[in-house]
Amino acid sequence: KNWARPLEWENRAFQQLQPLRVHNPDTSLTTTCTIGPLVDRIRAHSDEHGMDLIVMGSHGSSGKSDFFIGSNTQKVARSLHRPLLVIKEPLEEVRFDKVIFASNFDEREKEPFLRFKEIVKHFLPEIHLVAIHSSSLFDPPYILSHEAMADFKRLCHPFNCHTHIYKDFSVDRGVRNLARELGANLIGISNHYRRPIKRMLTGSNVEALVNHAEIPVLAIDYSEKPST
């Protein structure tokens, strides 16, 4: 109802981006102010402009809201099918030279991994492939995990690559604990579609990492979109 407010928001966004313009004179920056549901507006803008990557800041949430409401960043991770980089704290420098890719390393994961590698290759990264075993009945035998990871290790060429099978109470916690031990500065994970009921019963590794990880998380979606 207040038609002056969008202009106020746009002016504020312009002012906040001014330091970026000053320090990055060779980078083209465009600001857009829009009204409507967050996910719908981001999706519309991304589709219209063919965005390759979405970057969001997140402070996360906690408790039951993780399952029933979720943060705005969780909702974007759940609903949009584009690479999503989530940053929790301001970065002193963009340096993703020691990165983790967490996966079960089945055949479907190869495409998200190669897209992840394409994004981080400019940093000449040391890549750590991570499989988390959480004492679940669904955990594969260790020998199968090693064999699957060996196939992905070949895909890491020409970068230095290490493999880890890490045991913890959950995938989310295992990835975060190993990231601290390694001193990693980026977590990569594939983001496949999960139906709402299944998500509420079992959770989502991507959404848990988006909420709880201390370092940036890069979620790469499978190319195929869920059927409706």
Structure description:
The protein has a seven-stranded mixed sheet, sandwiched between helices. α6 links the parallel β4 (126-133) and β5. α7 (171-182) packs across α9 (205-212). It has 228 residues and is an alpha/beta fold. The chain is 42% helix and 17% strand. Mean pLDDT is 81; it is low at 61-69, 194-202 and 224-228. It has helices spanning 4-23, 38-49, 65-68, 72-79, 110-120, 142-155, 171-182, 196-202, 205-212; strands at 54-57, 84-87, 98-102, 126-133, 161-167, 186-191, 217-221. It has nine helices and seven strands.
Fold topology:
Blueprint: H1 4-23, H2 38-49, E1 54-57, H3 65-68, H4 72-79, E2 84-87, E3 98-102, H5 110-120, E4 126-133, H6 142-155, E5 161-167, H7 171-182, E6 186-191, H8 196-202, H9 205-212, E7 217-221
Parallel strand pairs: 1-2, 3-4, 3-6, 4-5, 6-7
Antiparallel strand pairs: 2-7
Helix pairs in contact: 4-9, 7-9
Summarize the structure.
The chain has 228 residues and is an alpha/beta fold.
Residues in β-strands, percent: 15-25%
Strand order, sheet with most strands: 1-2-7-6-3-4-5
Helix content: 40-55%
Radius of gyration (Å): 19 Å
Secondary structure category: alpha/beta
Q: Could you spell the SSE succession in H and E letters? A: HHEHHEEHEHEHEHHE
> How many DSSP helices?
9
Uncertain spans: 61-69, 194-202, 224-228
Mean of all residue-level pLDDT scores: 81
- What is the overall shape? elongated
List key phrases describing it.
7 strands, 7-stranded mixed sheet, 17% strand, 228 residues, disordered C terminus, alpha/beta, 9 helices, single chain, 42% helix
